[in-house]
Amino acid sequence: MRFAFGIFRLQPAGGLERNAVEIARLLLARGHRIVFHTTTGGESVPAGAEALRLARRGATNHGAMKAFSADFAEAARGFDLTVGFQKLDGLDLLYCADWCFVDRKRPFWQRWLPRYRTMAALEQACFGRRSATRIIALAAPQLDAYRQAYATPIERTALIPPTVAPGIRAETRPTAEGKSAFKAAHRIDDDAVVWLWVGLQPLVKGLDRVLAALAKRDDAVLVICGADRKNRQLDELLRRSDYAGLAHRVRVLGMMADSGTLVGIYAGADLLVHPARLDVTGAVILEAIVNGLPVITTGNCGYSPHVAASDAGIVLAGDFDQRAFDQALAAADAERRSRWSVNAFASGHSPELYAGLPRAADLIEAAGRKDDAAWRALGQNGRSLPSRSPA
Q1: Which of 253, 269, 323, 391 is most buried per CB count within 10 Å?
Q2: Which CATH number is correct for 166-350, 3.40.50.2000, 3.90.550.10, 3.30.413.10, 3.30.43.10?
Q3: Which residues contact 185 (CB under 8 A, 6 or more apart)?
Q4: Is the pLDDT of residue 220 over 80?
Q5: What is the Cα gyration radius of the chain?
Q6: For residue 305, what pLDDT is reported?
Protein backbone atom coordinates (compact mmCIF):
# COMPACT_ATOMS: atom_id res chain seq x y z
CA MET A 1 0.00 0.00 0.00
CA ARG A 2 0.96 3.66 -0.39
CA PHE A 3 0.88 5.68 2.82
CA ALA A 4 1.12 9.47 3.04
CA PHE A 5 2.63 10.64 6.34
CA GLY A 6 1.97 14.24 7.37
CA ILE A 7 4.18 15.81 10.04
CA PHE A 8 4.62 19.56 10.29
CA ARG A 9 8.30 19.45 11.29
CA LEU A 10 10.54 16.44 10.82
CA GLN A 11 13.37 17.24 13.23
CA PRO A 12 15.59 14.29 14.13
CA ALA A 13 15.69 14.90 17.91
CA GLY A 14 11.98 14.97 18.76
CA GLY A 15 10.29 11.89 20.22
CA LEU A 16 7.29 12.18 17.88
CA GLU A 17 9.55 12.50 14.87
CA ARG A 18 11.61 9.48 15.92
CA ASN A 19 8.42 7.46 16.30
CA ALA A 20 7.22 8.50 12.85
CA VAL A 21 10.52 7.48 11.29
CA GLU A 22 10.56 4.12 13.10
CA ILE A 23 6.97 3.34 12.09
CA ALA A 24 7.88 4.15 8.50
CA ARG A 25 10.88 1.82 8.73
CA LEU A 26 8.67 -1.01 9.96
CA LEU A 27 6.14 -0.49 7.17
CA LEU A 28 8.84 -0.25 4.51
CA ALA A 29 10.17 -3.63 5.66
CA ARG A 30 6.70 -5.05 5.00
CA GLY A 31 6.78 -3.85 1.40
CA HIS A 32 4.74 -0.65 1.66
CA ARG A 33 5.61 2.76 0.20
CA ILE A 34 5.94 5.79 2.51
CA VAL A 35 5.99 9.45 1.48
CA PHE A 36 6.59 12.00 4.25
CA HIS A 37 5.06 15.45 3.79
CA THR A 38 6.63 18.15 5.96
CA THR A 39 7.62 21.80 6.06
CA THR A 40 11.01 21.32 7.73
CA GLY A 41 13.63 18.60 7.70
CA GLY A 42 13.29 15.28 5.92
CA GLU A 43 16.93 14.25 5.95
CA SER A 44 16.23 11.64 8.64
CA VAL A 45 13.66 9.61 6.70
CA PRO A 46 14.65 5.93 6.42
CA ALA A 47 16.09 4.47 3.26
CA GLY A 48 13.31 3.65 0.82
CA ALA A 49 10.98 6.41 2.01
CA GLU A 50 10.48 9.72 0.26
CA ALA A 51 10.27 13.22 1.72
CA LEU A 52 8.17 15.91 0.05
CA ARG A 53 8.73 19.43 1.35
CA LEU A 54 5.61 21.60 1.51
CA ALA A 55 6.10 25.35 1.75
CA ARG A 56 5.41 26.84 5.16
CA ARG A 57 2.59 29.34 4.78
CA GLY A 58 1.04 31.59 7.40
CA ALA A 59 2.27 34.41 9.62
CA THR A 60 1.50 32.59 12.90
CA ASN A 61 2.09 29.06 14.16
CA HIS A 62 -1.61 28.23 14.13
CA GLY A 63 -2.00 29.82 10.69
CA ALA A 64 0.90 27.73 9.40
CA MET A 65 -0.66 24.55 10.81
CA LYS A 66 -3.99 25.34 9.16
CA ALA A 67 -2.23 25.93 5.84
CA PHE A 68 -0.22 22.72 6.22
CA SER A 69 -3.44 20.81 6.84
CA ALA A 70 -4.88 22.05 3.55
CA ASP A 71 -1.66 21.50 1.61
CA PHE A 72 -1.21 17.97 2.93
CA ALA A 73 -4.79 17.05 2.04
CA GLU A 74 -4.15 18.19 -1.52
CA ALA A 75 -0.71 16.57 -1.87
CA ALA A 76 -1.85 13.24 -0.40
CA ARG A 77 -4.64 12.59 -2.89
CA GLY A 78 -4.50 9.10 -4.37
CA PHE A 79 -2.75 7.38 -1.46
CA ASP A 80 -4.26 4.32 0.21
CA LEU A 81 -4.11 6.01 3.61
CA THR A 82 -3.30 9.48 4.96
CA VAL A 83 -1.60 9.35 8.37
CA GLY A 84 -1.15 12.53 10.40
CA PHE A 85 1.23 13.02 13.30
CA GLN A 86 -0.51 16.26 14.19
CA LYS A 87 -4.23 16.98 14.16
CA LEU A 88 -5.10 17.81 10.55
CA ASP A 89 -8.35 18.03 8.62
CA GLY A 90 -9.44 15.07 6.48
CA LEU A 91 -7.05 12.44 7.88
CA ASP A 92 -7.74 8.75 7.55
CA LEU A 93 -5.69 8.09 10.69
CA LEU A 94 -4.09 10.21 13.42
CA TYR A 95 -1.12 9.05 15.48
CA CYS A 96 -1.88 11.29 18.44
CA ALA A 97 0.96 12.32 20.75
CA ASP A 98 -0.73 15.48 22.11
CA TRP A 99 -2.99 16.15 25.05
CA CYS A 100 -6.54 17.30 24.31
CA PHE A 101 -6.38 21.00 23.38
CA VAL A 102 -9.86 22.02 24.54
CA ASP A 103 -9.43 20.13 27.82
CA ARG A 104 -6.63 22.39 29.05
CA LYS A 105 -7.44 25.00 31.66
CA ARG A 106 -7.30 28.55 30.28
CA PRO A 107 -9.11 31.88 30.71
CA PHE A 108 -12.52 31.81 29.01
CA TRP A 109 -11.67 34.78 26.79
CA GLN A 110 -8.93 32.80 25.03
CA ARG A 111 -11.65 30.76 23.34
CA TRP A 112 -12.35 33.75 21.11
CA LEU A 113 -8.79 34.10 19.87
CA PRO A 114 -7.85 32.94 16.35
CA ARG A 115 -5.29 30.46 17.70
CA TYR A 116 -7.83 28.72 19.93
CA ARG A 117 -10.47 28.57 17.20
CA THR A 118 -7.99 27.19 14.64
CA MET A 119 -6.52 24.51 16.89
CA ALA A 120 -9.94 23.52 18.25
CA ALA A 121 -11.29 23.18 14.71
CA LEU A 122 -8.40 20.88 13.68
CA GLU A 123 -8.98 18.79 16.79
CA GLN A 124 -12.71 18.62 16.11
CA ALA A 125 -11.95 17.44 12.57
CA CYS A 126 -10.20 14.37 14.04
CA PHE A 127 -12.17 13.59 17.19
CA GLY A 128 -15.67 14.95 16.55
CA ARG A 129 -18.54 12.50 16.18
CA ARG A 130 -18.97 13.39 12.50
CA SER A 131 -15.33 12.59 11.73
CA ALA A 132 -14.22 9.28 10.21
CA THR A 133 -10.59 9.63 11.34
CA ARG A 134 -9.19 6.63 13.20
CA ILE A 135 -7.13 7.49 16.28
CA ILE A 136 -4.02 5.81 17.67
CA ALA A 137 -3.59 7.02 21.28
CA LEU A 138 -0.49 6.52 23.40
CA ALA A 139 -1.82 6.62 26.96
CA ALA A 140 -5.11 5.95 28.74
CA PRO A 141 -5.42 9.37 30.45
CA GLN A 142 -4.87 11.06 27.11
CA LEU A 143 -7.60 9.01 25.43
CA ASP A 144 -9.98 9.59 28.34
CA ALA A 145 -9.61 13.36 27.98
CA TYR A 146 -10.50 13.26 24.28
CA ARG A 147 -13.50 11.02 24.87
CA GLN A 148 -14.81 13.30 27.58
CA ALA A 149 -14.43 16.34 25.32
CA TYR A 150 -15.79 14.89 22.06
CA ALA A 151 -17.60 11.61 22.85
CA THR A 152 -15.41 10.04 20.16
CA PRO A 153 -16.85 6.65 19.15
CA ILE A 154 -14.88 3.83 20.72
CA GLU A 155 -14.62 1.88 17.47
CA ARG A 156 -12.46 4.64 15.92
CA THR A 157 -9.87 4.60 18.73
CA ALA A 158 -6.96 2.34 19.57
CA LEU A 159 -4.64 2.36 22.56
CA ILE A 160 -1.11 1.05 22.06
CA PRO A 161 1.56 -0.18 24.51
CA PRO A 162 4.69 1.86 25.32
CA THR A 163 6.82 2.96 22.41
CA VAL A 164 10.43 2.44 23.49
CA ALA A 165 12.62 1.79 20.44
CA PRO A 166 14.68 -1.40 20.94
CA GLY A 167 17.88 0.36 19.84
CA ILE A 168 17.72 2.78 22.75
CA ARG A 169 18.60 0.14 25.37
CA ALA A 170 22.17 -0.69 26.39
CA GLU A 171 23.21 -4.34 26.63
CA THR A 172 24.62 -3.94 30.13
CA ARG A 173 23.75 -1.95 33.23
CA PRO A 174 25.69 1.30 33.86
CA THR A 175 29.06 0.90 35.57
CA ALA A 176 31.00 3.15 37.94
CA GLU A 177 33.83 3.27 35.41
CA GLY A 178 31.46 4.43 32.67
CA LYS A 179 30.03 7.15 34.88
CA SER A 180 33.51 8.38 35.77
CA ALA A 181 34.46 8.53 32.08
CA PHE A 182 31.28 10.49 31.28
CA LYS A 183 32.01 12.98 34.05
CA ALA A 184 35.59 13.43 32.92
CA ALA A 185 34.46 14.05 29.33
CA HIS A 186 32.12 16.82 30.48
CA ARG A 187 34.39 18.38 33.12
CA ILE A 188 32.29 17.18 36.06
CA ASP A 189 33.84 16.32 39.42
CA ASP A 190 33.87 12.58 40.00
CA ASP A 191 32.02 12.89 43.32
CA ALA A 192 29.19 15.04 41.87
CA VAL A 193 25.66 13.66 41.39
CA VAL A 194 24.65 14.04 37.74
CA TRP A 195 21.00 14.98 37.16
CA LEU A 196 19.78 14.54 33.59
CA TRP A 197 16.92 16.55 32.08
CA VAL A 198 15.78 15.68 28.54
CA GLY A 199 13.19 17.62 26.50
CA LEU A 200 12.38 20.21 23.87
CA GLN A 201 9.92 22.26 25.97
CA PRO A 202 11.71 23.62 29.06
CA LEU A 203 8.68 24.95 30.92
CA VAL A 204 6.25 22.16 30.02
CA LYS A 205 8.81 19.55 31.10
CA GLY A 206 9.64 21.40 34.34
CA LEU A 207 13.23 22.53 33.77
CA ASP A 208 12.59 25.64 35.89
CA ARG A 209 11.65 23.34 38.77
CA VAL A 210 14.90 21.41 38.33
CA LEU A 211 16.98 24.60 38.34
CA ALA A 212 15.21 25.77 41.49
CA ALA A 213 16.21 22.49 43.16
CA LEU A 214 19.76 22.69 41.82
CA ALA A 215 20.27 26.05 43.54
CA LYS A 216 19.82 24.26 46.89
CA ARG A 217 22.17 21.34 46.16
CA ASP A 218 25.90 22.02 45.94
CA ASP A 219 26.69 18.38 45.18
CA ALA A 220 24.69 18.13 41.94
CA VAL A 221 25.43 18.96 38.30
CA LEU A 222 22.64 19.26 35.72
CA VAL A 223 23.02 17.91 32.18
CA ILE A 224 20.44 19.23 29.69
CA CYS A 225 19.68 17.34 26.46
CA GLY A 226 17.20 18.07 23.69
CA ALA A 227 16.79 21.82 23.84
CA ASP A 228 19.77 24.07 23.10
CA ARG A 229 20.65 27.72 23.71
CA LYS A 230 18.69 28.75 20.59
CA ASN A 231 15.53 27.86 22.49
CA ARG A 232 14.26 31.14 23.95
CA GLN A 233 12.76 29.56 27.06
CA LEU A 234 15.95 27.67 27.79
CA ASP A 235 18.10 30.72 27.19
CA GLU A 236 16.01 32.79 29.58
CA LEU A 237 16.08 30.10 32.28
CA LEU A 238 19.84 29.69 31.96
CA ARG A 239 20.46 33.44 32.10
CA ARG A 240 18.53 33.53 35.36
CA SER A 241 20.58 30.57 36.53
CA ASP A 242 23.78 32.41 35.63
CA TYR A 243 22.71 35.19 37.94
CA ALA A 244 22.10 32.63 40.70
CA GLY A 245 25.64 31.30 40.32
CA LEU A 246 24.67 27.98 38.72
CA ALA A 247 26.39 28.29 35.36
CA HIS A 248 29.38 26.16 36.39
CA ARG A 249 27.02 23.33 37.38
CA VAL A 250 24.99 23.17 34.16
CA ARG A 251 26.00 21.41 30.94
CA VAL A 252 23.90 21.94 27.79
CA LEU A 253 24.47 19.15 25.27
CA GLY A 254 21.72 20.16 22.81
CA MET A 255 19.89 17.80 20.48
CA MET A 256 20.90 14.15 20.52
CA ALA A 257 19.39 12.39 17.52
CA ASP A 258 21.71 9.39 17.58
CA SER A 259 20.41 6.60 19.81
CA GLY A 260 23.92 5.44 20.67
CA THR A 261 24.81 8.87 22.03
CA LEU A 262 21.61 8.95 24.08
CA VAL A 263 22.36 5.54 25.55
CA GLY A 264 25.78 6.81 26.59
CA ILE A 265 24.23 9.81 28.33
CA TYR A 266 21.72 7.63 30.19
CA ALA A 267 24.62 5.45 31.33
CA GLY A 268 26.67 8.43 32.48
CA ALA A 269 23.97 10.17 34.52
CA ASP A 270 22.93 9.29 38.06
CA LEU A 271 19.29 10.39 38.01
CA LEU A 272 16.69 11.45 35.45
CA VAL A 273 14.74 14.48 36.72
CA HIS A 274 11.42 14.94 34.91
CA PRO A 275 9.01 17.10 36.97
CA ALA A 276 6.80 17.84 33.97
CA ARG A 277 3.69 19.96 34.15
CA LEU A 278 2.13 17.67 31.55
CA ASP A 279 3.47 14.81 29.47
CA VAL A 280 1.14 12.57 27.50
CA THR A 281 3.58 9.68 27.85
CA GLY A 282 7.03 10.75 28.94
CA ALA A 283 8.99 8.45 26.64
CA VAL A 284 12.21 9.66 28.25
CA ILE A 285 11.04 8.04 31.51
CA LEU A 286 10.98 4.58 29.95
CA GLU A 287 14.17 5.20 27.98
CA ALA A 288 15.92 5.98 31.26
CA ILE A 289 14.44 2.99 33.07
CA VAL A 290 15.41 0.41 30.46
CA ASN A 291 18.97 1.78 30.63
CA GLY A 292 19.12 1.41 34.39
CA LEU A 293 18.81 5.13 35.17
CA PRO A 294 16.59 5.93 38.19
CA VAL A 295 13.82 8.51 37.73
CA ILE A 296 12.14 11.23 39.77
CA THR A 297 9.03 12.46 37.99
CA THR A 298 5.52 13.80 38.42
CA GLY A 299 2.40 11.63 38.41
CA ASN A 300 0.78 13.45 35.49
CA CYS A 301 3.09 11.75 32.98
CA GLY A 302 1.48 8.86 31.13
CA TYR A 303 4.39 6.49 31.73
CA SER A 304 5.04 7.45 35.36
CA PRO A 305 3.29 4.30 36.71
CA HIS A 306 6.19 2.28 35.29
CA VAL A 307 8.55 4.00 37.74
CA ALA A 308 6.50 2.87 40.72
CA ALA A 309 5.79 -0.57 39.26
CA SER A 310 9.48 -1.32 38.79
CA ASP A 311 10.63 0.45 41.99
CA ALA A 312 12.98 2.56 39.88
CA GLY A 313 12.60 5.95 41.57
CA ILE A 314 10.01 8.32 42.96
CA VAL A 315 6.72 9.54 41.48
CA LEU A 316 5.38 12.79 42.97
CA ALA A 317 1.61 12.50 43.40
CA GLY A 318 -0.95 15.31 43.36
CA ASP A 319 -0.30 18.97 42.66
CA PHE A 320 3.38 19.82 42.29
CA ASP A 321 5.14 21.01 45.43
CA GLN A 322 8.73 22.25 45.09
CA ARG A 323 9.60 21.20 48.64
CA ALA A 324 8.41 17.64 47.96
CA PHE A 325 10.52 17.57 44.79
CA ASP A 326 13.56 18.85 46.69
CA GLN A 327 13.02 16.21 49.38
CA ALA A 328 12.72 13.43 46.78
CA LEU A 329 16.05 14.49 45.28
CA ALA A 330 17.65 14.55 48.73
CA ALA A 331 16.29 11.06 49.42
CA ALA A 332 17.92 9.70 46.25
CA ASP A 333 21.22 8.86 47.91
CA ALA A 334 23.83 6.57 46.39
CA GLU A 335 22.47 3.41 48.03
CA ARG A 336 18.91 4.01 46.80
CA ARG A 337 20.07 4.99 43.33
CA SER A 338 22.01 1.74 43.08
CA ARG A 339 18.97 -0.33 44.09
CA TRP A 340 16.69 1.60 41.76
CA SER A 341 19.16 1.13 38.90
CA VAL A 342 19.17 -2.65 39.31
CA ASN A 343 15.36 -2.73 39.39
CA ALA A 344 15.06 -0.38 36.42
CA PHE A 345 17.39 -2.33 34.17
CA ALA A 346 15.69 -5.61 35.08
CA SER A 347 12.30 -4.18 34.07
CA GLY A 348 13.74 -3.36 30.66
CA HIS A 349 13.52 -7.05 29.72
CA SER A 350 9.72 -6.77 29.41
CA PRO A 351 8.71 -7.15 25.71
CA GLU A 352 5.62 -5.00 26.33
CA LEU A 353 7.77 -1.87 26.71
CA TYR A 354 8.85 -2.15 23.05
CA ALA A 355 5.55 -3.24 21.50
CA GLY A 356 4.00 0.17 20.80
CA LEU A 357 5.57 1.09 17.46
CA PRO A 358 5.13 -2.37 15.87
CA ARG A 359 1.52 -2.26 17.09
CA ALA A 360 1.07 1.16 15.47
CA ALA A 361 2.40 -0.24 12.19
CA ASP A 362 -0.06 -3.14 12.47
CA LEU A 363 -2.93 -0.69 13.05
CA ILE A 364 -1.94 1.43 10.06
CA GLU A 365 -1.97 -1.69 7.89
CA ALA A 366 -5.39 -2.70 9.25
CA ALA A 367 -6.75 0.79 8.56
CA GLY A 368 -5.32 0.72 5.04
CA ARG A 369 -7.06 -2.61 4.40
CA LYS A 370 -10.24 -1.30 6.09
CA ASP A 371 -10.10 -4.38 8.31
CA ASP A 372 -12.29 -3.34 11.23
CA ALA A 373 -11.95 -6.67 13.05
CA ALA A 374 -8.14 -6.46 13.03
CA TRP A 375 -8.31 -2.81 14.12
CA ARG A 376 -10.44 -3.69 17.14
CA ALA A 377 -8.28 -6.64 18.13
CA LEU A 378 -5.00 -4.73 17.79
CA GLY A 379 -6.17 -1.57 19.52
CA GLN A 380 -7.64 -3.18 22.64
CA ASN A 381 -10.88 -1.72 21.28
CA GLY A 382 -9.68 1.63 22.60
CA ARG A 383 -10.27 0.55 26.19
CA SER A 384 -9.18 2.96 28.89
CA LEU A 385 -7.18 1.92 31.91
CA PRO A 386 -7.29 3.53 35.37
CA SER A 387 -5.96 7.01 34.76
CA ARG A 388 -4.87 10.20 36.42
CA SER A 389 -5.85 13.61 35.06
CA PRO A 390 -3.07 16.20 34.62
CA ALA A 391 -2.52 18.71 37.39
Answers
A1: 269
A2: 3.40.50.2000
A3: none
A4: yes
A5: 21
A6: 92
